[in-house]
Structure formats: C-alpha cells, structure tokens
C-alpha cells in the first residue's frame, strides 16, 4: 500500500511539474508574441511618420509655389466655397479641378494596390514618379498644371496604409488624428486607462515636421524642391520592398 501511494504521489508530482512547465512555456511564448507585436506596431508607426512627413513636405511646397494645397482637401473645399460665393469662378474652377484630381489619385492608388497584390512599394514608386513629374513641370511660374501630378500622388498615397496593428491612421491629412487624440484624452479624463490614443500624435508630428522642411525647401531651392519628396518616396519604396509580406498584412492594414 505504502509503495503504491508513493508511486501515485510521485506520478502526481511529476504531472504537476509537467503542467507547470507547459504553463511556463505558454507564458514565455505569449510574452515573446507580445514583444513582437509591440515592435511591429512601433515599426509601423515609424513608417506612418515618414509617409506623413512626405505629405507635409509636398503640401508646403505646393502651397508656397501655387497658393493651392496638394493634400489638404478640407482647406481646398473651404477655398472653393469662398471663391464661388465671391463670384471668382476662375479660382473656383481651378480648386474644383484639384479636388477632382485628388479623388482620381485615391482611385488610382486603390487600383495600383490591387494590381500589385497589395504591396506598398510599387505604390510608393508611383508616388515618387508623380512628384518628380511635378518637379519637371514646375518652371518657376505659378502654373496649376505642374501641381496636378503632385495632387495625384497625394491622393494615391492615402491608399498605402490605413491602419497600424488595428489603429486607424491618416496619412495626408491630420484632422482625424487630432480628433482621435482629443477623444482619447476625454476618455482618459473620464476613467479609461488606455494610452493607445497617444499613437495618433505620430502622423500629426510627421505632417508638421514635413511641412516645416517643405517650406524651407521651397523658399531656398524652389526649382528643385519637388525632387526632395520624390526622393523620399523612392527611399520609402526601397524600404517597403524589403518588408516581409506577412508584416504588411499584420501591421500595415487596409480596409
């Protein structure tokens, strides 16, 4: 009897040790998965920062060069309404064309992603080529036609990334990012202890930094200013080329 009881106790102890080992292994795997997820989210938002910076550079250059925005369509919509109400139909028509071109750019971006198997790098190469085309067409005069490729580029750029690890992001406009930031602050004040909303400051900072750089570029080097965001887009395309497909699917989402 004693021997049998000892064997049962040994068996139970061994089973408990095995369970603890399995639980420990599962806990380690979960911790490693969480760290990978955190690194993926950070990498994704670094990418978003760079794309938003690209949009900020382009918008500042376009506005200083021609007086029109290339990515800030809320501002262009207001400007269209004011021009229309002021009977300045030539200005209203020009701004309406920019709005239409921006929509067309979004459509082209969505089609390009579909055709290329939802990889980001071909879209960024297209954006680079369009920005370079604006650089070629811009001859120092405030011509709207030099702005058309850049507006197309900013529209297409919106299709590149729509969320990072489930967090919605805006790339070429930051009203939504600031709105989500403000609502997150409100929820924090009312007792929701979730600081993920702070991530929405990233695209806003990218846009701000890019716009400052773009303004300096256009003031100092107006003839070649558009080539800088074109080069940045090409560099981002090269970076995206080496991103694993699984990473894009997991962290750089599209709806």
Describe the structure.
With 255 residues, this protein is mostly helical. It is 75% helix and 2% strand. It has 9 helices and 3 strands, in the order αααααββααααβ. The protein has a 3-stranded antiparallel sheet with strand order 2-1-3. A hairpin with a 2-residue loop joins β1 (163-164) and β2 (167-168). The termini are far apart. Residues 28-33 have low confidence and may be disordered.
Structural topology:
Elements: H1 2-66, H2 73-85, H3 89-115, H4 120-137, H5 148-157, E1 163-164, E2 167-168, H6 175-189, H7 201-220, H8 227-241, H9 245-251, E3 252-253
Helix pairs in contact: 1-7, 1-8, 2-3, 3-5, 4-5, 4-8
List keywords for this structure.
255 residues, mainly alpha, three-stranded antiparallel sheet, 9 helices, 3 strands, 75% helix, 2% strand
Could you tell me the mean pLDDT? 83
Radius of gyration over all CA atoms, rounded: 25 Å
Sheet/helix structural class: mainly alpha
Order of helices and strands: HHHHHEEHHHHE
Q: Proportion of β residues?
A: under 5%
Distance between the termini: 67 Å
Shape, per Cα inertia axes: globular
The helix content is over 70%
Q: Tell me the number of strands.
A: 3
Largest sheet: 3 strands, antiparallel
Strand order of the largest sheet: 2-1-3
The unreliable regions are 28-33
Count up the helices: 9
């Amino acid at each position: 009897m004693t021997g049998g009881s000892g064997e049962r106790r040994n068996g139970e102890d061994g089973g408990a040790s095995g369970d603890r080992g399995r639980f420990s292994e599962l806990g380690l795997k979960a911790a490693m998965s969480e760290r990978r997820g955190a690194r993926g989210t950070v990498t994704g938002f670094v990418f978003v920062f760079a794309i938003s910076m690209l949009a900020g550079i382009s918008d500042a250059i376009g506005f200083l060069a021609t007086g029109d925005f290339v990515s800030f369509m809320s501002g262009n919509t207001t400007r269209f309404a004011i021009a229309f109400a002021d009977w300045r139909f030539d200005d209203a028509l020009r701004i309406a064309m920019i709005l239409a071109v921006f929509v067309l750019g979004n459509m082209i971006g969505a089609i390009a992603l579909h055709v290329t198997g939802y990889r980001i790098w071909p879209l960024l190469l297209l954006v680079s080529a369009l920005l370079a085309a604006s650089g070629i067409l811009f001859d120092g005069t405030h011509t709207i036609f030099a702005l058309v490729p850049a507006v197309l580029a900013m529209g297409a750029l919106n299709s590149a990334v729509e969320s990072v690890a489930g967090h919605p992001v805006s790339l070429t406009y930051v009203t939504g990012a600031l709105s989500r930031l403000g609502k997150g602050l409100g929820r924090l004040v009312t007792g929701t202890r979730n600081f993920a909303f702070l991530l929405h400051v990233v695209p806003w900072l990218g846009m701000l930094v890019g716009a400052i750089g773009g303004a300096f570029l256009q003031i100092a080097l107006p003839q070649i200013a558009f080539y800088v965001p074109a080069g940045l887009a090409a560099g981002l395309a090269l970076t995206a080329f080496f991103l694993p497909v699984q990473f894009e699917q997991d962290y750089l989402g599209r709806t």
